[in-house]
């Protein structure tokens, strides 16, 4: 899961100063970004007006794309520090390789969770042969300072707990929802869930008022707290909610993302999450010199070179704007 921008803009995020401490309805529009050879993604986080939701720091939505005659996702080996990556699919498959030796095909509604810790590198590609359609989301979770130098590792959880109600099936990806808890490792209070809604479903989902939340629309027509949210867009909901009204105008799917507001201020540049300019500079130098990040074996292609750092200092300044 990579940011393939060749001129990435530093994002400063974290800190509680700009967290909306009451319920809001803030619709976030995506930015279109090319990912690899044939995949275009809609980037929702970081956004011009919103940098994080809890510890969720990066959200891309892609597809559904017809890749029957295309290579599909082809992301060469690239590095990460200071974060976890979450691979989540509705259609298709992604083959994951990383520098710890992991080799895993991730399929729809299976959790691929990679903890970079101090340093990891990985690649992602559509298998050959592959399914006709590719549709999913790629997400990052920022690690708190106490765990950002932990050992790198990869988890694959094909069976996840669900919560059901009339017209609703919710798969718990990370954290806990309505008493169901994911087996995925977490380092901050967080929740991620995939909600499948049947046409006509009208319900209220229980929430934690201490969390801030956002909803990513994956498919179909759904109203979130009365706001229509189209596929590929996200509604930021703020804090202070004990429940969330949902109404499906058609069969639909959304992702609920939330967590306690992230206290620490961060710098996110390219595929690195750090605390200082020196963190980012050192990570880039180590990747380009071939140290620290290990090797990804089996990918047919060269690793991604790191972009040039921007000429201005990278300083954390808060979580929005």
Automatic annotation (TrEMBL):
Biased composition (Pro residues): 304-314
Residues covered by region (Disordered): 298-321
Domain Pirin C-terminal: residue ranges: 193-291
Listed Pfam families: Pirin, Pirin_C
PANTHER family xref list: PIRIN, PIRIN-RELATED
Family: Belongs to the pirin family.
Name of the protein described by the UniProt record: Pirin family protein
Organism: Streptomyces sp. 900105755
Lineage summary: Bacteria, Bacillati, Actinomycetota, Actinomycetes, Kitasatosporales
